[in-house]
Write a structure and sequence with these properties.
439 residues; alpha/beta; Rossmann fold; six-stranded parallel beta sheet
């Protein structure tokens, strides 16, 4: 919405939410989301044609186009628990739109939803019988956290799906006209509703599949003394494959990949396709295996015990340049290290202590006593027996590891879960250094 406001000064954009604190943060100088370039755009457009408000009904009534942009987490209750998408927030939005009224509307699914969700939204809107006409359009978002503003300014494509009727085509054209202010026509793709909804899930599944594929090869590399980065470079130069998403690591995280693949497997089983479901389930299984493999390698290197030892955790966000820790691989790894009676000193430049504690969800006071938070990477590493790099923040490449070594217990270990550092140089300094997919 911030990018639309920036690129379309003639369009008034209002973001509404029930959460008063969140809206207050968007109206302040300290935004609740860290994303490079976002703060500047919000500062330049807020109060001009970008607004943040808790006055939901009035803004619904005034709007011509409404984007539903709420969370669609994996269900943790009832039928489909652990796999199906929880659409209660989407349905709640549709009901609120119908209740508020205010004239004919184009309602846009911006949230990632399972295929056929538009049918539910349509039924809720039409069931209101309020005399207004609604057109539901699917417009999934393909940006990546950390590069979101660049992705929005110059997208690979903008996908818009609608009903293949005169009114449906008019609604698609109306949404497309917003993006046409800065996106080339050949990058604006129009499809039917169901193709658009399924394309988002499929795109995320394919990207996650590539990560799990190279991570599977990383395990073989460690056993055969091959180097996974060299393998990735060699296969990535094949134009049929390409180099993107071939960076081996501790696994994928974030709010989308796992959730969307679980949703995809649920849909496949629902429609009687167990073999297809099993195929995509294996992508998640490999991701879980990679995280456990990382922990096991730490244990093996440290005489099969970390009890009473200090582990510096560098990075908690699921990737660099974001404060988002949802489904971060760091969560599982930190929990496992705590299970092994290790003491953790955590540092992340953007993820707050409160967010980390919420993600770890630990109630045992004796476990919490082995968890501390540091103001810098150097502070986290001081008096540590080992360093685990779990997020590829650029600042971790610039640390003075020779100086850090002098503050650590010997033997000092580094476990680079992002292949950020040069292992040979670390070993020359005196570290026992380990990467992913490297001997």
């Amino acid at each position: 919405m911030a990018m639309i406001a920036r690129k379309c000064p003639g369009i008034s954009v209002t973001v509404v939410d029930l959460n008063e604190q969140r809206i207050a943060e968007w109206n302040s100088g300290e935004l609740p989301v860290y994303e490079p370039g976002l703060h500047e755009i919000v500062e330049n457009t807020r109060g001009k044609n970008l607004f943040f408000s808790t006055d939901i009904d009035q803004n619904i009534q005034d709007a011509d186009v409404i984007f539903i942009s709420v969370n669609t987490p994996t269900k943790d209750y009832g039928s489909g628990a652990g796999q199906a998408a929880d659409l209660r927030f989407v349905e709640s939005c549709a009901r609120r739109i119908a209740e508020a009224g205010g004239g004919d509307k184009v309602v846009v699914e911006k949230s990632t939803v399972p295929v056929r969700t538009a049918q539910m939204v349509n039924e809720v809107l039409k069931g209101a019988n309020n005399g207004f006409n609604y057109q539901v359009v699917s417009n999934p978002e393909f940006l990546a956290e950390g590069t979101a503003m660049v992705d929005l300014e110059s997208p690979d494509r903008v996908l818009i799906g609608g009903e293949k009727t005169d009114t449906g085509n008019a609604a698609v054209k109306k949404v497309a006209s917003i993006y046409a202010n800065w996106v080339e026509d050949d990058r604006i793709i129009t499809t039917n509703l169901w193709s658009s909804e399924l394309s988002k899930l499929t795109a995320n599944a394919f990207l996650a599949q590539r990560i799990s594929s190279i991570n599977a090869i990383s395990a073989l590399c460690e056993e055969t003394e091959a180097d996974v980065d060299e393998v990735a470079k060699a296969i990535g130069m094949d134009t049929r494959i390409g180099p993107k998403f071939l960076k081996s690591s501790i696994g994928f995280g974030g709010s989308c990949f796992q959730k969307d693949i679980l949703n995809l497997t649920y849909l496949c089983r629902h429609f009687g396709l167990p073999e297809v479901a099993g195929y995509w389930q294996q992508v998640i299984s490999m991701n879980e295996y990679q995280k456990e493999r990382f922990v096991q390698r730490m244990l093996d290197a440290m005489h099969n015990t970390i009890s009473g030892k200090q582990i510096a955790i560098l990075g908690f966000a699921f990737k660099k340049d974001t404060n988002d820790a949802r489904e971060s691989p760091a969560i599982s790894i930190c929990k496992r290290l705590l299970e092994e009676k290790g003491s953790l000193k955590i540092y992340d430049p953007q993820v707050s202590k409160e967010s980390i504690l919420s993600c770890l969800d630990i109630s045992d006071e004796s476990v919490l006593a082995r968890l501390t938070f540091s103001e810098s990477a150097e502070q986290a590493c001081s008096s540590a027996h080992a360093i685990a790099i779990l997020t590829e923040w650029d600042e971790f490449k610039e640390l003075d590891y020779k100086k850090i070594l002098d503050t650590m217990y010997r033997p000092a270990h580094i476990f680079d879960g992002r292949n950020l550092l040069v292992l040979e140089k670390l070993r020359e300094l005196g570290y026992r250094a380990f990467g992913i997919g490297k001997a």
